[in-house]
Amino acid sequence: MNSKVVLWIIIIAIFCLSSWQVYGIVNHKEVTFDAEVLSASSTKTIEERMASVESRVLTLERNAGLVKSKTTAKTQEQFKNLSGGTVAASDWSKISGTDFIFDASLYGSSVEVTWQGWIDNGNGSVRLYDSTNHRAVDYSEISTDSGVKSSFYSKPLSIWRGQNAYYVEGKNSGNDLTLSSPRLKIITK
Length: 189
Fold this sequence. Notes:
The chain is an alpha+beta fold.
């Protein structure tokens, strides 16, 4: 037999079998419908069905962690009291008893830290020192030359990640410099 004839016989056989299957499905109504899905979709408009699908997709994306939910969380302020003390040095020196441990990640993912307090008899400067990373904390240096008790408030500090050890340093240009009531202001958003 010729190969073309065999090929045509196979094609006709496939066509006949597939036509027979289609005829059986159409005449015997073997297609089944889920009554719950059919009733839900037939009573809603297209807009309502799309809104329902979008809502379900958004819920699934939130559960999978692909989309963060929008929260209207309020800004919260917390304070961490620090120890004060006196320094009598013309170069940066540790104020004894001012050691503390701080980890900004314990307060959340969006944290801003400042510090504040009072400087007595002040003609000098104070700053925070990160003893874990051996560096002065950026934007923590406060200087005064008023000679009287005055309050101070820093800009937001550059706190490095992790649980780090800190202490307060000071220097003066004359009389003893006294730091009182220092504290960290932690703002979480």
